[in-house]
Each structure stands twice: as structure tokens, then as C-alpha cells.
Amino acid sequence: MRVENCDVVIIGSGVAGLICALTLDKKFKIILLTKKKLKDSNSYLAQGGISVCRGKEDREDYIEDTLIAGHYKNNREAVEILVDESEEAIKTLIKNGVKFTGDKKGLFYTREGGHRKFRILYCEDQTGKYIMESLIEKVLERDNIKIIEDCEFLDIIEKENNCLGILAKKEEIFAIKSKFTVLATGGLGGIYKNTTNFSHIKGDGVAVAIRHNIKIKDISYIQIHPTTFYTKENERKFLISESVRGEGAVLLNQKLERFTDELKPRDKVTKAILEEMKKDKAEY
After folding, report:
1. Separation CA 52–CA 58 (nearest Å)
2. Per-residue CA distances from 17 to 12, 27, 41, 102, 264 (Å)
3. Of the residues 54, 142, 236, 266, which is catalytic?
4. Tens digit of pLDDT for each residue in 257-268?
5. How many CB atoms lie within 10 A of CB 104?
6. Burial class, 159, CB count within 10 angstroms (exposed 0-12 / middle 13-18 / buried 19+)
């Protein structure tokens, strides 16, 4: 079997995988592999924006909004890290070439579900695309990062409870020996009939983690986008970002009646939509 050697192997080419590769010291030899092409990640499809703390006076409100959306089941420490590091995360993206929408006076902010304030930064209507293209450009400039596309992650190589690398398949099965292994494989939206995700993103990393008794958390929590463009075609659905609702769009039932507060957290909007569909015995 062919064997490649590196310091760090990263599985996944979304924002998490790319930022990980760019953040690590250039002295490390990194292999980044992805099941399809670099751009074929759910990160690339994201339309809406990224929430960011609007200064110290916004900290507690932002934390509270996040806890409310999570029904207070969130790990508060994790929420605080999210909020406290959000401004630095945006600076990192800007440093890597991301141009958020704004003018000479500053950046523009909008609202999304669950946020009481305007704290969402965005790049026109294709935030994910612009972020990913900037990060991909930076990754391609790095001599220490080798990218392997069209490569399927099969399993990790485990010995005496230590991860020694991975098994992958690109035409043939081969091994990558590494000092560190990062699973950044994304979610599992591709297993659903109705999804805005790429069909090939099916929870590969989560499955491998389960097989090897790697600790995972809140696997039962699946984030659902309430609004997509309705079609009977069995293909990836076109996402209608909640930023559209943040800018004033409303949801109507079959009788053209408004039936919910569109800026509630996603699970509540989804539940309201499903209830209307049951009432009307409708598919949308």
C-alpha cells in the first residue's frame, strides 16, 4: 500500500478545514483532502452572514440570544468563547482577503433569526462563496499545504488508542501517516431527501468517530433551514437565507396569511411552517 507522510492531515475543505490549515505554522507539512473539489463544501453555499459581537456593551445580549436559541441547553462556556472570539475571527477573515459588504463609513450589519440586534456581517448575498474563494486562494499560495481532491476518507489508523493517520481512497486505497489528524468533515445533511447541503456530505467524520469511540457531543441536534425554494425534484434545494427575513421578508401560508414571527430561532420557524402545512394538508 502506498504511504504518504505529513505532520498534520486535515479531512474536509470547508471554512473549518481551510482556517485550520492556514492557522498552523508554515513549518508543518500539511495534507488537506476533500471528497470532491475544494469548492464543494456547504461553507461555499452559505448565503447569509456571520454574527459578531458589537463591542463590550453587546456581549451579554449576544450570549443571551444564543442561549435562548439553544433552549438554554448550550454549554455556556462554549457560548462565551464564541462571542468573545467573534471579533478576532472576523479580523482573521479580513486579513485573509475577505471583503465584507460596507462603504467608506464602515461595514454593513443585518439581522437574522434569534438576534435582537443588527450584528450580522455579510458579503453581498453569497457570503460563503466569497469567504471560501478568499481562503482557497490563500491555501493555494502555501507551499507547505498539499491538497488532494476527489479523495474519500475511509478510516483513521488506530494503534493502542493513538491515531497514527488515515486510510483514504483516490482510485486506490492508500495511507497517510501523520502526527496529528483533524476531522473537519462537516455535517450530514446529504442523507436527507430535502436538504440545501451537497449530497456527498453525509457525516463521514462522525461515523468514523463513533466507530473508534471518539467522544462526540449533541449528535441528535440537526440544524434545519426553514426556508428553501419548493420543488418536487429530488435534488439539492435552493436555500433562501434567513437574511432575507432579516431585511423584512415575511412568510405566508396557503391563504396568504402571515402566521409567525419570521425572526424567531430556526427550530421555532420550522415548527410553525410544519404546523401550517398540516393544517392546509399542503406540501409547502
Report:
1. 10
2. 5, 18, 10, 27, 30
3. 266
4. 999 999 999 999
5. 4
6. exposed
CA separation for the pair 52, 220 (Å, rounded): 26
Task: State residue 222's pLDDT score.
Answer: 85
pLDDT value at 117 more than 90: yes
Q: What is the pLDDT of residue 114?
A: 93
| C-alpha distances out from residue 235 to 44, 128, 137, 198, 240, Å | 17, 20, 29, 9, 15
Distances (CA, A) of 112 to 52, 90, 246, 247: 12, 17, 5, 9
Whether the pTM exceeds 0.85: the reply is: yes
- Per residue in 201-219, pLDDT (tens digit) is 999 999 999 999 999 988 8
Alpha helices in 10-107 (DSSP H): 15-23, 42-45, 59-69, 76-84, 86-95
Q: What is the pLDDT of residue 20?
A: 97
pLDDT at 31 over 90: yes
In 3D space, the residue among 162, 160, 157 whose CA is nearest the CA of residue 177 turns out to be 157
If you search the block for the grid coordinates 440586534, which residue do you land on?
117
Residue 262: phi, psi to the nearest 5? -65, -20
266 is catalytic: yes
Q: Which helix (H) or strand (E) holds 267?
A: helix 266-280
